[in-house]
Amino acid sequence: MDYCRVAGKCGGFWAGKQFVNNNTYNVTLRATIKNKGNASAGASITAFGASPSFISIIQNVNTPGLASGQSANVTTYGVAGLGNYTISAVADNNNNVLESDEYNNLRITSLLVP
Fold it and tell me: Which CATH number applies to 2-105: 1.10.150, 2.60.40, 3.30.1360, 3.30.1950?
Protein backbone atom coordinates (compact mmCIF):
# COMPACT_ATOMS: atom_id res chain seq x y z
CA MET A 1 0.00 0.00 0.00
CA ASP A 2 1.43 3.35 -0.93
CA TYR A 3 0.52 6.96 -1.43
CA CYS A 4 1.20 8.25 -4.89
CA ARG A 5 3.64 11.11 -4.70
CA VAL A 6 2.43 14.71 -4.96
CA ALA A 7 1.92 15.44 -8.68
CA GLY A 8 2.64 11.76 -9.31
CA LYS A 9 1.05 9.61 -11.97
CA CYS A 10 -2.09 8.81 -9.97
CA GLY A 11 -2.79 12.17 -8.37
CA GLY A 12 -1.69 11.47 -4.81
CA PHE A 13 -2.10 13.96 -2.03
CA TRP A 14 -4.36 16.98 -2.49
CA ALA A 15 -5.20 19.84 -0.16
CA GLY A 16 -7.72 22.59 -0.81
CA LYS A 17 -9.11 25.48 1.19
CA GLN A 18 -12.16 27.74 1.22
CA PHE A 19 -12.57 31.00 3.14
CA VAL A 20 -15.17 30.93 5.94
CA ASN A 21 -14.74 34.12 8.00
CA ASN A 22 -12.32 35.96 10.30
CA ASN A 23 -9.27 34.44 8.60
CA THR A 24 -10.65 30.94 9.08
CA TYR A 25 -10.72 28.41 6.25
CA ASN A 26 -12.41 25.08 5.66
CA VAL A 27 -9.72 22.67 4.51
CA THR A 28 -10.16 19.46 2.53
CA LEU A 29 -7.37 16.88 2.50
CA ARG A 30 -7.44 13.93 0.11
CA ALA A 31 -4.97 11.09 -0.38
CA THR A 32 -4.99 8.32 -2.96
CA ILE A 33 -4.20 4.96 -1.38
CA LYS A 34 -2.97 2.27 -3.77
CA ASN A 35 -2.35 -1.40 -3.09
CA LYS A 36 0.95 -2.03 -4.88
CA GLY A 37 1.19 -5.59 -3.63
CA ASN A 38 0.22 -8.88 -5.26
CA ALA A 39 -2.49 -9.76 -2.73
CA SER A 40 -5.67 -8.10 -1.50
CA ALA A 41 -5.34 -5.73 1.45
CA GLY A 42 -8.03 -5.53 4.13
CA ALA A 43 -9.68 -2.39 5.40
CA SER A 44 -7.50 -0.05 7.46
CA ILE A 45 -7.22 3.49 8.86
CA THR A 46 -5.55 6.42 7.12
CA ALA A 47 -4.35 9.04 9.60
CA PHE A 48 -4.07 12.70 8.61
CA GLY A 49 -2.14 15.30 10.57
CA ALA A 50 -1.22 18.97 10.41
CA SER A 51 1.65 20.84 12.01
CA PRO A 52 1.03 23.28 13.53
CA SER A 53 -2.33 21.86 14.44
CA PHE A 54 -5.47 22.96 12.62
CA ILE A 55 -8.27 24.49 14.68
CA SER A 56 -10.01 21.17 14.05
CA ILE A 57 -9.43 18.11 11.85
CA ILE A 58 -10.86 14.63 11.48
CA GLN A 59 -7.64 12.68 11.89
CA ASN A 60 -8.56 9.03 11.29
CA VAL A 61 -10.42 7.97 8.18
CA ASN A 62 -11.67 4.47 7.36
CA THR A 63 -10.01 3.11 4.23
CA PRO A 64 -11.68 0.28 2.30
CA GLY A 65 -10.03 -3.02 1.51
CA LEU A 66 -8.21 -2.96 -1.82
CA ALA A 67 -7.56 -5.66 -4.40
CA SER A 68 -4.06 -5.86 -5.87
CA GLY A 69 -3.47 -2.75 -8.00
CA GLN A 70 -6.66 -1.05 -6.81
CA SER A 71 -6.77 2.55 -5.52
CA ALA A 72 -9.14 4.48 -3.29
CA ASN A 73 -9.38 8.16 -2.41
CA VAL A 74 -9.74 8.99 1.28
CA THR A 75 -10.81 12.46 2.31
CA THR A 76 -10.94 14.40 5.55
CA TYR A 77 -11.97 17.89 6.53
CA GLY A 78 -10.69 20.49 8.94
CA VAL A 79 -10.69 24.16 9.88
CA ALA A 80 -7.46 26.16 9.82
CA GLY A 81 -6.33 29.70 10.47
CA LEU A 82 -3.83 31.64 8.38
CA GLY A 83 -0.37 30.10 8.16
CA ASN A 84 1.97 27.53 6.67
CA TYR A 85 1.19 23.91 7.51
CA THR A 86 2.94 20.61 7.05
CA ILE A 87 0.30 18.03 6.17
CA SER A 88 0.87 14.30 6.58
CA ALA A 89 -1.05 11.17 5.72
CA VAL A 90 -0.22 7.65 6.90
CA ALA A 91 -1.80 4.65 5.19
CA ASP A 92 -2.60 1.64 7.38
CA ASN A 93 -1.95 3.67 10.52
CA ASN A 94 -3.50 0.89 12.61
CA ASN A 95 -1.12 -1.76 11.13
CA ASN A 96 -4.08 -3.86 10.09
CA VAL A 97 -2.59 -4.86 6.72
CA LEU A 98 0.35 -7.25 6.41
CA GLU A 99 2.64 -5.57 3.88
CA SER A 100 5.84 -6.44 2.04
CA ASP A 101 7.00 -2.83 2.55
CA GLU A 102 5.89 -1.17 5.79
CA TYR A 103 7.99 1.93 5.09
CA ASN A 104 6.14 3.42 2.12
CA ASN A 105 2.96 4.50 3.90
CA LEU A 106 3.84 8.12 4.81
CA ARG A 107 3.48 11.15 2.58
CA ILE A 108 4.03 14.76 3.55
CA THR A 109 3.21 17.99 1.73
CA SER A 110 2.84 21.65 2.63
CA LEU A 111 -0.23 23.88 2.62
CA LEU A 112 -0.33 27.68 2.76
CA VAL A 113 -3.54 29.19 4.13
CA PRO A 114 -4.60 31.32 2.34
Answer: 2.60.40
